[in-house]
Fold this protein.
Amino acid sequence: MGMGSYPQYRGRAIHALDGIWDFHFVDGGVKDPAAPALAKVRYDDRQAVPGVFDALPRHAGKRGTAFYRTRVRVTPHAKLLLKSPGLGMWGAFFWDGRRIGVHDLPYSGLEFRFDAGEGAEHELVAVIDNRFDAERQPLLSPFFDFYSHGGIFRPLELHEVFPVSLDRAFVHVTDLKAGKVEVEVLLAGDELPERIALAAAFDGGKATKRTLKVRDGRAKFSAVLEDKRKWDCEHPVLHTLSVTLGEETLTERFGLRTVEAKKGKILLNGKAVRLYGYCRHEAHPEFGPALPWQIVVEDMQLLRQVGCNFVRGSHYPQDQRFLDLCDEFGILVWEEALGWGNRPEQYADPRFASAQLRQIAPMVKNSGNHPAVILWGFMNEGSSEDPSCRFLYEAMTAELRKLDPSRLVTYATKKFTEDIDLDLVDVVGLNTYPGWYAMDQEKYRPLDEIAVKCDTFLKFLHENGFDDKPLIVSEIGAGAIYGWRDRLNGQWSEEYQRDYLETVLDYFFAHDRICGISLWQFIDCRTYSSARAIRRPRAFNNKGIFDEYRRPKLAAETVTRRYRAARGLDVKDD
């Protein structure tokens, strides 16, 4: 079946590598974890996959090099594919002491293809390093406002693949009303034929045989679905496509829907949709980003309970299990590549620019069939006011549109009226915190700043010719310590957060120019472990309406009441 619900592969052997692995940690790290160093490792502990080693008692908060080891039985001389949807922060993998791949894109999908070699039993070693190292892994930095964990975050699998095998099959809607689609089948293998014979079936129906040309590892065909029901937030109808090539069958899941930006609105299936949402980190104080199914499902239930129809995945490619649930429950998604507050000196580093661009392809490949994903984003709160950095904004938007022209492109700016790159995007995303990081530091409860700041930005968009671009307030919020009730209703109290978000939503619902909002944030998240945490009580970003254990603050009731009423939902829990 595979590590998520889709895609599914039948006919090939799949070895799930989740479980308890041998483990050894070197505090401070190993300079060069190459093959000769592996023989000297003395495994003295055990570690979970998926999991993060630096959230557990023995290695909590430590940074260094972790060695994972397991044994796998496969068919001798099999062609193998090792894959996972993500790890952190840097990883190298060794098969019987032979390095088979290096992964330097945290949270991105990894795929390594190699030959099994002789014999049935083999040793697989993963070397995972959670040190900040701009030369080896330039995407994560210590100044990011979320904790960077080390480990194999998401499921790990080993596939035995055929010499010519099915990789993915992407379904692109070409005529929504007619149910017409174009299918792009991706093939893998050392020597691909010029033509292939395959069979394809939609929604479990009768398979149609086709002989197709293969160009650049891809084969394409068009089809019309019998079931033309569309996917939207209220009726998230999902379809399946099964492609059979030789002895294996690949099944993908998709939805019939279109998304476009027009006259300041986001159109879903040609109709304007308003987005009521939250920014969400994949985080938990015990599991870090390696969330067990229980927490993933709990988060989905809470988002639905609040009345969200939109979630912004902050600030990295998302767990495919969560996106599967968004597909099933009609929650629209902004998915973005890893980036946070990046500075001009990083943009000037060719390694950083290369890594930013390289992470686009696996994100689009992993999430390309999710109808819930309507927005691609990148480089949250970057240096979009600096002319020297514009080249990367141009390159990122161009790469996203080349790989997937069917979705909208955006980034979240905090540069306000100094931003010079908004002409490049389909949708404007604004991060702003008036009344929290107050302009008037001496003022008690400066809630009036919210309207002043937002009015200024709306005027800026109008005066610069951006009225046709939809606007999402991509971050706005206030911090509150769970359980802190204060008769002064001041900052950090649950009362102030409640009143702040009530004021924000008053403004949002009074201004149709704003087509969406993703409040910051859904849950409290661990952040800096350094002295930077002086601005973050408990070393957490405390702006969640739920705390890190998913317990509601006062603001949760306020947001729930406003969102559910706006969507015409019963105020009772979903």
About this structure: The radius of gyration is 24 Å.
